[in-house]
Design brief:
The chain is of the alpha+beta class. The protein contains eight helices and eight strands, in the order βββααβββαβαβαααα.
Length: 200
């Protein structure tokens, strides 16, 4: 079974399902894209890991990582292994040093965990050929949109909200950041952090 390595290209609000997000994975050595609809909590967990935001309390995927490390289990890779009736299946490949084993998982959870361990994400040809989207030549001129720089789930921010942050003092921004982290509003925390980074 030949595996195809994927990378995360973008995370944005789903146009088709309210409260859901589209996670876009791209073929590392090709031009196919694999969009997967995931839930809000999984999207948030993936986004805060990409954005390197440290939550005040561990999220479920952080807890999994801590537990695995205490049990001397390492994650080696994530594999999106199958697609049945529109549902993606994935496996978390693990080892305890003497044996290898796999855990069945939803792709969103597997990817959130994989990001925390810094392991590669793979799929197989059958999944990509069935659910992958090939970029057409027409989209070549729109590379900036295609690359969809991952900005947590904050792509739906209104320009007025951005403006208000740009007019806020650094001290106030730090207070807002702490408040957002206390409330576990990681989308807002990412926006505030981005504004603070602009000032430094």
């Amino acid at each position: 079974m030949e595996k195809i390595q994927l990378e995360i290209l973008g995370l944005s609000s789903s146009q088709s399902q309210t409260g859901s997000f589209a996670l876009v994975l791209g073929e590392r050595e090709g031009n196919r894209r694999l969009p997967i609809i995931i839930g809000m909590f999984e999207a948030q967990s993936i986004a805060i890991q990409i954005e390197k935001i440290n939550p005040n309390r561990p999220l479920t995927h952080d807890l999994f990582k801590t537990f695995a490390e205490h049990m001397d289990v390492a994650i080696t890779e994530i594999l999106i292994s199958d697609l049945k009736e529109g549902v993606f299946y994935s496996k978390i490949m693990c080892t305890d040093g003497t044996r290898e084993f796999e855990l069945d998982s939803r792709p969103s959870d597997a990817i959130a965990i994989g990001l925390r361990f810094g392991v590669p994400i793979y799929t197989v040809e059958s999944v990509l050929s069935e659910a992958g989207i090939i970029l057409s030549d027409l989209e070549d001129g729109d590379e900036e949109n295609e690359e969809m720089t991952v900005k947590s789930t904050s792509s739906t921010t209104s320009s007025s909200a951005k403006e208000s942050l740009s007019q806020t003092s650094v001290d106030e921004l730090n207070k807002l950041l702490n408040d957002a982290l206390d409330k576990e509003d990681y989308e807002r925390a990412a926006k505030i952090r981005d504004e603070l980074n602009k000032r430094n």
